[in-house]
Amino acid sequence: MAKLNFFLGLCIGLSMTVIIQVFDITSTFKDFYLRNINPEAWKPHGLSCQPDSQGDPRLRKIEDDLIHMRLQNTDDGEFHQDNDVIAKQLFKTVRIACWILTSPQNLEKKAIHVKNTWTKRCNVVVFISSQKNDSFPTVGVNAKEGRQHLTAKSMQAFKYLYDHHLGDADWFLKADDDTYVIMENLRYFLSGEDPNKPLYFGQRFRPFLKQGYASGGAGYVISKEALTRYGRRGFDNASVCRNASGHEDVEMGRCLQNLGVVLKPSLDALNRTRFHCLTPETYIGNHLPASIAKVYDVENGRAGAENMSDYAISFHYVSPSKMYDLEFFIYHLRPYGILNMPQKLNLAA
Known about the structure:
Elements: H1 2-37, H2 57-69, H3 85-93, E1 96-101, H4 107-116, E2 124-129, E3 139-140, H5 150-165, E4 171-176, E5 180-181, H6 183-190, E6 199-201, E7 204-205, E8 213-214, E9 220-223, H7 224-234, H8 248-258, E10 262-263, H9 280-284, H10 290-296, E11 314-315, H11 320-331
Helix pairs in contact: 4-11, 5-7, 5-8
Cofactor: Mn(2+)
Keywords: Disulfide bond, Glycoprotein, Glycosyltransferase, Manganese, Membrane, Metal-binding, Nucleotide-binding, Signal-anchor, Transferase, Transmembrane, Transmembrane helix
Main location: membrane
């Protein structure tokens, strides 16, 4: 019995030593981070360490700093043996200019994370704001901030692309600063379409217009011919493209419809969705609001993983931290021993 007690005591003692050491290491790292990496946030008195940091601006500052640092440790391309020949070829043959709708107050809160992640895969990237910023950089257009001015910003953004980048791309993508786009999947989808025809694509909504319109949050992409018609006959013609205070995606849809630009379906060959106006978890968990499912969405709000394309293109309301989560899951995480072969999911032309 004495030996058993001794053995149990030894195990408990060793366990406590390990726990204390782990706690000490964790505390030391936290203290090191606060003191050295972000000394402004180090306040030894009253600093809350609860997981929910919404009530403590110092912890929110720490989280923001960590978000900025996340990509520094994800450059593991030297270990990947991915065959990206097809993606590289499509980068050359399906050229996409991306413009991001943002604002001065969102540059460091949202836009920087879009810049650090998916827009690196665009052929051309332009951030549109109400103020020019040479260091970010952004293009400043003559429009005020606020939802009622989004149409004016978008109208001027497309005019800027027409004036400065018409020859640099075949397709022109509009996205918000909380939209995440998988550019390789967008290029594959567009590879079967003709940019010299007046076309545009996105998540189709049904109200207000005869052909419907594409959700602004999910992102929508217009062809070179569509942009050419807009630049030549739409921008300066209020009877065709009214620079109104209505919903940006509706008014752009009205403008494109008046110009004879066709909003085509974007479902894959298995009738699954590619553009998504809400977060991935909302669609995967089938939690679409009734207004989306029954009133707006042409596809009647079909959600669930079984209704989402393997080559999904976009998601909306993606937080800065989830931008990096998606980068990891899409471009870094790999199941060992499973080769990802290309699928033919485009509809026949």
